Amino acid sequence: MRAQKAQSKAARVNFDWTEVRDVIAKVEEELGEVKEAITSQDREMITDEIGDVLFAVVNLARKCKIDAESALQKATDKFVARFNQLEDELQRQRKRLGDVDLAELDEIWNEIKQTPNVQRSTPTD
Predict the structure, then answer these.
(1) Amino acid 121: pLDDT
(2) Residues 6 or more apart in contact with residue 97 via CB below 8 angstroms
(3) Which of 73, 85, 80 is nearest to 115 (CA)?
(4) Predicted TM-score (pTM) of this structure
(5) Distance, CA of 89 to CA of 92 (rounded, Å)
(6) What's the Rg (C-alpha) of the chain?
(7) How many CB atoms lie within 10 A of CB 99?
(8) DSSP state of 113
(9) Pair 51, 88: CB distance under 8 Å
(10) Cα(22)–Cα(66) distance, integer angstroms
(11) Rounded to whole angstroms, how far apart are CA atoms 123 and 19?
(12) What is the pLDDT of residue 124?
């Protein structure tokens, strides 16, 4: 929320990208810098670069007239609902989450993503 407010303030004085494609290029540039930072294994650099990616993505949301906070909340809710469905499916198969390999989890996850949004209720924070 703070990032979006800061970016909006800067945009009011024309310190802003004019085209969405330029913001997308910035996101891609920042992601490249994250990859380099990860390669360096410098934790502080990685933290800084991930922060830059998040800031750039918030800017992309703002340019698309999307509230970044709401979009992230919706994505988190979707992930939690799908993860709950994954747990339910494993329980139906009489399997435990920690005992199933990633390939099988990924297969189930992809099936869940293809099904309509039948969500089990999740606690709210």
Answers:
(1) 44
(2) 86, 87, 90
(3) 85
(4) 0.83
(5) 5
(6) 19
(7) 8
(8) H
(9) no
(10) 17
(11) 39
(12) 46
